[in-house]
Amino acid sequence: MGVHTIDLQYHAGQERQSGQDLEAYVEHARVTGRAVLGMTDHIEIYVGEADKPGPYDQSLDGLQAYHDDVRAMADRNPDLQLLFAPELGSRFDFDSLPAPVLDLADLFICEVPVPSMDPAENTATMCDRMEAIAGFRDAVDVPVFFAHPFRTAINNRLVKRDIEPWVAALEPQPLDAWDDATIDRFMTFDVAAIGETAAGLDLPVEINGNTHYRTRASNLPAALGVLQAACLTLRDAGVSFVPGSDQHGFMRGIGRCGGYVPWETFQMIDVGLGDLDHLVDLGVDPDRLS
Q1: How do beta strands 251-252 and 255-256 pair?
Q2: Within the chain, which residues score under 50 in pLDDT?
Q3: How far apart are CA 207 and CA 203, in angstroms?
Q4: For position 140, what pLDDT does the model report?
């Protein structure tokens, strides 16, 4: 079993692509080597203000229906483990979560805000949110993990803003040769401090496939190197990791072309399936890890 067999962020409910049903998503997972799935959607679609028409009602009843479909699919596919894992946005008010959702969730995926381009502000805000996530976890007794910590930075550096000359000029180098100052400047927060806070709170952190995809799409090898070096910094700070693709759709005009679990980054930072200490705590069947 490899890291690629565990995918704890797999969007397959209201956010699945048109023309594909839940059975197709599960079959895609099987043929692409996945054995454990965190079946997710953003909770705001069901109990918040997000407008996302799809196969389910945008209500608590719709979330219940998605949950029930996942449970039925799990019964029909005993070779796979399907966990129900709603994703809570970076500014979601934990106190507003309807109590029935706690009975549906096997775990929660939690986003953390990166509000500006100011590293000090971002680091403080992220640490505060991680404290709140840990408090929520302890209060409701449902496991959680911290989703895609580098997503906003990658969007700002490579996707949603102009790529600055200093970013384009970065040269590839060995993973352990990147200095903290460059990593932190690129990510716009103190990566080691975030890692130390996550480790201190016993909060596992996702290595996210969609973030890797956006980075690779920039065609800048050094940008991918910084992302992987940042993951190494988290590892050295004592963080335990979670694999997730963050896949929403998997069919394009050319055919099957979905998201992936970034197994190569796990290899580069020397983290294997046996090192992912929190997977059992998150509900993964230990027999799936051997």
Answers
A1: antiparallel
A2: none
A3: 13
A4: 98
- Kind and range of the H or E element at 96? none
In CATH terms, is domain 3-280 a member of 3.20.20.140?
A: yes
Bridge partners (DSSP) listed for residue 252: 255
Look up tokens 């394009």; give the residue.
Answer: 252
Tell me the C-alpha distance between 79 and 239, whole Å: 30
Helix (H, G, I), strand (E, B) or coil at 133: helix
CB-CB contact of 136 with 112 (8 Å): no
Position 49 scores a pLDDT of 80
Burial of 20 (0-12, 13-18, 19+ CB in 10 A): middle
Report pLDDT for 50. Answer: 77
Would you state the pLDDT for residue 74? 98
Give the residue extent of every domain in the chain.
3-280
Q: How far is CA 108 from CA 3, 15, 91, 228, 283, in A?
A: 20, 17, 14, 25, 11
